[in-house]
Specification:
Layout lengths: L1 E10 H10 L2 H7 L3 E8 L2 H6 L20 E2 L2 E2 L12 E8 L5 E4 L6 E2 L10 E8 L2 E8 L6 E3 L2 E3 L4 E4 L4 E4 L2 E7 H16 L1
Parallel strand pairs: 6-7
Antiparallel strand pairs: 1-5, 1-8, 2-5, 2-14, 3-4, 6-8, 8-9, 9-12, 10-11, 10-13, 13-14
Helix pairs in contact: 1-4
């Protein structure tokens, strides 16, 4: 069963504070769904070969600066270039009243990505209910510069299932998908490290 989504904008600083205030179960109850964490721009040299390479996942975003994400042994994100979505987390909640989440450069999209490498309507994110729990997928809508998951190209119209911590790139802009429990654990660890 396909569920549509509503999008809530949060900052990583705000979520980190909520982790400090709430226990794990209370955090998950307050923020049900999955998060798309804005990672930033792929380095220019990586864009040219991204559709031919495959890699693993990793990394996390920090507020106000582009995260450095490691795929295998090579850096893929430009840690020096600032971008307008740095430090933001988009909470995707299921909502039974409409289609999947529209991603693209157009202001009509549910999540607008202000970058020339991103098509007006670049792709869709869907959540499907399964016996094993919610299944998240990305679909490329025949975008000009393509969509990839962990730097593996998603063909136009293909529905690619996303796993926790996968990196979704639209043109040269990337997001990391995190389940609420994973984000909670990562932010809790940051809070511990900040106090030691």
């Amino acid at each position: 069963m396909i569920r549509s989504m509503s999008v809530e904008l949060h900052t990583l600083d705000e979520l980190r504070q909520r982790v400090a205030e709430l226990g794990r179960e209370a955090f998950l109850a307050e923020y049900p769904g999955v998060f798309l964490i804005a990672l930033g721009f792929l380095a220019v040299e990586e864009i040219r070969g991204a559709h031919r390479r495959r890699g693993g996942s990793g990394g996390a975003a920090g507020h106000g600066a582009t995260a450095t994400v490691i795929f295998a042994d090579q850096r893929r994100h430009d840690a020096q270039q600032q971008h307008p979505l740095a430090g933001f987390a988009f909470l995707l909640r299921t909502d039974p009243t409409g289609p999947g989440l529209r991603l693209g450069r157009s202001q009509r999209c549910d999540l607008t990505i202000p970058d020339a490498s991103v098509s007006e309507l670049h792709g869709l994110i869907e959540i499907h209910a399964t016996i094993a729990g919610p299944q998240v997928a990305v679909i490329d809508t025949n975008s000009t510069n393509g969509t990839s998951v962990n730097l593996e190209r998603v063909e136009a119209g293909e529905r690619r299932i996303l796993a926790d911590e996968d990196i979704v790139s639209l043109g040269r802009y990337s997001f990391q998908l995190l389940r609420g429990a994973t984000l909670y654990e990562e932010l809790a660890l940051l809070n511990v490290l900040a106090t030691t």
